[in-house]
Amino acid sequence: MQALLDPAILFFLLGVLAGFLKSNLEVPAQISRFLALYLLMALGLKGGFALAKSGFTADVAMALALALLLAVLIPGIGYLVMRKLLAPFDAAAVAATYGSVSAVTFITAVQYMESRGYAFGGHMAAAMALMESPAIIIAIAIAAQLRKRQPVVANASPNAPAQGSLKSVLHEALTDGAQFLLLGSMAIGFMTGQDGKLAMEPFTGSLFKGMLAFFLLDMGLSAARNLPKLKGQTPWIYAYAVVAPLLHAGLALGLGYVFGLAAGDLALLMVLAASASYIAVPAVLKHSMPEANPALYFGMSLGITLPLNLVIGIPLYVQLAFQAVGTPGP
């Protein structure tokens, strides 16, 4: 209950309420875009500053390796499950959505832990970047195989949506502006270290939470307005949108515990595994997999999974991680 009293979460819930009540409250798209870029830049800098202080150690390498492993396992398992419930292209799209990550969920978790004094490694921002693209690549590869099995349609319409090649999708995924800004900011933070940290205050400090609260207000509005898009779909997708994040977090918990991750890093790995993309994956799949229904995978991730993780998931994952490792909280 205490997590709900966090101002950022309360602003998210305010946005959800405004959306359900059909209020005319809205955040202009350009401002929302600016807030997203600000949060990624600030997060990258903070991660770089922390990594400069700790150095690149074996523990850092292990956390990044586990993040990459989860980024392959989760979409693979997700597709095997969802193809029993959905059409093949929809199954691949949902698997990609839940195999990738949500920067907003991660940033909110970082703020939650910082405000409560929980320690974690700045390199986990790099783990987030690593986990974004593999699911997209896997989904595009699956789609390519599905298309090979389909009969060629004679006299296909010249206006049919183009399907990007794997090469173009790889380029788009790996050079995406948001991810590029995150990694570049982390590199700058790492190179400048403590001097850079002092120079960038209050940009990465006192302003951060207010900007996050404003952005989460917009996310709450979007969540409320996208949930109705799932009307008429099989009830199993609602169950998946709730249960899958918990199972993915549990998988991360098991791997992190076995390989000895520090409690704070383990908590953030669980957050990443439990999150689902609602920006990067939909943007790529809209053009590269037009056979899939965007309302399905977008509505699930933004309408159900994002609110679940922000309100309940983050405090739960943090608590479980510290209990598993046996490290007391602050």
Automatic annotation (TrEMBL):
<feature type="transmembrane region" description="Helical">
    <location>
        <begin position="236"/>
        <end position="260"/>
    </location>
</feature>
<keyword id="KW-1133">Transmembrane helix</keyword>
<feature type="transmembrane region" description="Helical">
    <location>
        <begin position="59"/>
        <end position="81"/>
    </location>
</feature>
<keyword id="KW-0472">Membrane</keyword>
<feature type="transmembrane region" description="Helical">
    <location>
        <begin position="125"/>
        <end position="146"/>
    </location>
</feature>
<dbReference type="InterPro" id="IPR010293">
    <property type="entry name" value="Sbt_1"/>
</dbReference>
<feature type="transmembrane region" description="Helical">
    <location>
        <begin position="93"/>
        <end position="113"/>
    </location>
</feature>
<protein>
    <submittedName>
        <fullName>Sodium-dependent bicarbonate transport family permease</fullName>
    </submittedName>
</protein>
<feature type="transmembrane region" description="Helical">
    <location>
        <begin position="266"/>
        <end position="285"/>
    </location>
</feature>
<dbReference type="Pfam" id="PF05982">
    <property type="entry name" value="Sbt_1"/>
</dbReference>
<feature type="transmembrane region" description="Helical">
    <location>
        <begin position="297"/>
        <end position="318"/>
    </location>
</feature>
<keyword id="KW-0812">Transmembrane</keyword>
<feature type="transmembrane region" description="Helical">
    <location>
        <begin position="34"/>
        <end position="52"/>
    </location>
</feature>
